[in-house]
Amino acid sequence: MDMYEKRVRLRELLDETGCTPLMGAYDLLSAKIIEQTGFPVLYTGSFVTGASAYGLPDVGLVQMHDLLGLAREIAKETNLPLVCDADTGWYHAANIWRTVHEFESAGVSAIHIEDTVFGKHTEHTPVLLDTPVMCQRIKACVDARKDPNFLIFARTDAIYLKNDPEEAISRINAYLEAGADAGFIPFKGSVASLAEFRKKINGPLIVTSVDFQDSVADEATAGANMSIYWPLTIFAAFKAVKKVCEEFYQHQDATKLHEFCFDEGLINKTISYERFEENLQRFGAI
């Protein structure tokens, strides 16, 4: 699919009955594995990019151009719609058009912007944008897009950081009225509480669980349209690499690591060796 077809497909998935899982990629290899596995949508964001590419925490240090390179490569090298975390948009309403322009030009299918200025992934008192300020940013994003199928999602952390569902409902509905294509909340608590929350939202809702205690089916029953599973691949990679390093450091014996390593053939299939072989047959090597 080209970038326009991917955006149409993402909009179709958002409108479909049920809950579509968005699987998080932290690099291009993980994105290709996700695609080959059969997932319908890719996602990448500031936490995984900051951790994997720069060793930085997700506390406002990861900026637009830190994320654009990976987004561009994933969009270029896979055939799935890609949703990207765009933090607060990095600019006030008059300048946020640049965020939209850069991600849209990179071939991304959607971005989400959030209302958290400070406090995410910390124990400090959170600071959220005033609702009218966030709404102006959303309006500016919608106005800036060239392709109407490039989607703008609006995230609030009023539940995640403030434990205030009523404020989250008010904010999400205001953001939808401002033109966002969907609201987005990190939720905590039971899916029953999510279902009650969902009834009061006047448009599509995307969720991500804070503790991942529920299934996609549970989230679908609660009324979520999409659910973002952003950390699974990077958490899995971290644990596996750490295990291999510790085992090899302790035993200095790679024969004990076959469970984790030495599948070069499988990796080669993932990183386009087959295309190289086909081109070699068609065009020769020199």
TrEMBL record:
UniProt xrefs under Gene3D superfamilies: Phosphoenolpyruvate-binding domains
Pfam family membership, one: PEP_mutase
UniProt GO molecular function: metal ion binding; oxo-acid-lyase activity
CDD domains linked to this entry: ICL_PEPM
UniProt keyword terms in alphabetical order: Metal-binding
InterPro entries from the UniProt entry: ICL/PEPM, Pyrv/PenolPyrv_kinase-like_dom, Pyrv_kinase-like_dom_sf
Domain of life: Bacteria
PANTHER family attached to this UniProt entry: CARBOXYVINYL-CARBOXYPHOSPHONATE PHOSPHORYLMUTASE, CHLOROPLASTIC, PHOSPHOENOLPYRUVATE CARBOXYLASE
Official protein name in the record: Carboxyvinyl-carboxyphosphonate phosphorylmutase
Organism of provenance: Billgrantia endophytica
